[in-house]
Amino acid sequence: PSEGWTLPTNTLRVTGGTHAVSGYDASTSTSIEIGATNGNAQVVLEGGEVRASALLAVGIPNMVGNPALLTVTGGRLALAQKGDHATGDAKVMVGQRAGAKGRFLFTGGEVVANSIRGGSGASEFIADGGTFTVQNAVEGDWALSRLHAARLGAKGLAVNVPQGVRAISLQAFTDLEGADGLLAKEGVGALVVSNASKHARTAVAAG
After folding, report:
1. Exposed e or buried b for every residue in 97-133, given b needs 16+ CB within 10 A?
2. Which helix (H) or strand (E) holds 163?
3. Poorest-confidence range of 132-141, 152-161, 162-171?
4. CA distance 144 to 154
5. Do residues 82 and 91 lie in contact, with contact meaning Cβ atoms separated by under 8 Å?
6. What three-state secondary structure class fits 179?
7. Closest residue by Cα to residue 104 from 90, 93, 119
8. With the CA atoms of 93, 109, 82 and 99 taken in that order, what torsion angle do they form, in degrees rounded to the nearest 10?
9. Closest by Cα among 142, 126, 143 to 134
10. What pTM did the predictor assign?
């Protein structure tokens, strides 16, 4: 972990299969909260598929200020869009509220969502091999934004933007120590980057 961060003590590890959170196929929204109440938790996705609804919160306020950790090394994490959350849904929010501490380590696999963003708490995002597919662009809830620290490794972050989607990133990135960080654009949709990012490499594979 980075300075000031400790590993959670409770782990949910997914290595295969298909797992749908209750409410995924319903018309109403539900959420997954990692590190809720007095928790000290992490979720690790190594394979298979997890289908979650609307909001995945990594770190919410708790009594002892423990960090929460989401690690995706493989598999697929898909967040559903719901009719009653027409704007700003289907997002991974790191450090959801004031007093929370969340960390998202993304080194493989795919995350399908509208956005990956920081909340009002402390948020850290490290990408070194994962693919973020932006399923829908929601104005005011940019595809990548508000993360306090966002670092890219040599394998970097691939942002896949499908046809008909115009995604906007307001997130500034830096390189992981000792690495030439990579931000790669994939898909035929449009990705608009507006920030003071200091990562080493940007590549456009399509679109």
Report:
1. eeebbbbbbbebbbbbbbbbbbbebbbbbbbbbbbbb
2. none
3. 132-141
4. 19
5. no
6. coil
7. 93
8. -10
9. 143
10. 0.89
